[in-house]
Amino acid sequence: MAASIVLGAGCLASAGSAAREEQAATATKHETYTESVAGTKIQFEMVAIPGGTFVMGSPAGEAGRADDEGPAHTVRIAPLWVARTETTWDQYDPFAFGQSIPAPTAATAAPAPAGVDAMTRPTPPYGDESFGFGKGRQPAINVQYHAAMEYCRWLSLKTGKTYRLATEAEWEYAARAGTATAYSFGNDTGRLDQYAWHSGNSGARPHPVGQKAANAWGLFDMHGNVAEWVLDHYDPKYYAQVPPSAPGPVLLPSDRRYSYGARGGSWDDPPGRLRSAARRGSTEEWNRRDPQSPQSIWWHTDAGFVGFRVVRAVEEQENLKGLRSRITTSSR
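-> C-alpha cells emitted (332 positions)
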C-alpha cells in the first residue's frame, strides 16, 4: 500500500501565503537558477524562458507531417522556467523509493504551494523499472502520466515552489526556441545526430541526459532520448478548437488513464517523430504486459521510451492553479 503524508490546516494556510509571496518575488526576478531539494542529493537547473508568441503546429508542406499537427495556430506563452534536462533517475528515485516523505516545517523546508496537501508513493514496479538501461543520470523511464504528475507535487512540497509538467503549447514553444523549422536547428535531418538520440544512432537505448547539443535556449534532449509527458490530454483534433492568439491553451487532464500527450520523440523513434511539432498520445499498449488487476497507475511495462521534465510558471495561469492528477486505480 502506498505511503502518504497529509499537511495540517496551519501548513495549508501558510502555504497559500508563501505562494503569494513567492509569486510577487519571482515576477520581478526571472533568472536561471539551480534547485536543490532538502534532505536529498537532488540538484537540477531551471532555465528562464521568456514569454512570447509563436505558431504551434506544422505547415502543410513539412516533411513527415501528420494530420494531428494542424491547423497551425498562433499561441501566446507566459514567461516560465524549464528544466535544462529530462528528469533523471537520480532525481526520481528519492521520490519513488525513499523511506519517508517528511512534512515540511519552519525548520526544515519552505511550506508547500497552495493545493499540495497530500502525497502518495509509487507502488513497487512489476519488473525492472529501468529496463536494464541503468540509472544515475539516465532519464527516468517507464513512469506513467500519473507518476510524473505526483513527482511534480512531491517536488513542490519539498521545495515550496510550484513545479509541474509543461502544457503541450509550452513544451513546443520551449523546444522550438524561437524557430519555425522542423527542428530547433533547422530542417536538415543530416544535423540531427548533433542534437538527438534517435533510432538511427542510439544503439537501441536511452542515454545519460545532456550529451548532445542544446537548443538555442540551452535545453538538452528536447529532440529524442525520451519522449516527454506534457500536461494535456491528447486529442488529434484539438488544434481546430484553439482560438486565434490564445493565451496558454491547455486541454486539461481528467480522471481518465488515457490518452495524454508525450512530445519530442525518443531513442526508439525515426527522425520524423523528433520534429518540434510531432505529437503522440499514450495508449493501453504502453502497459499491455502488466498482469496486475487493476493495472498499475505508476509504472509502464512497455514504454521504456517515455520520460518527462519539469517546468515552473513565473505567474501561474488560473486554470492550472492547484492542479493535480485525478487518476486512481479505479480510473479507466
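Residues 9-27 form the longest helix (19 residues).
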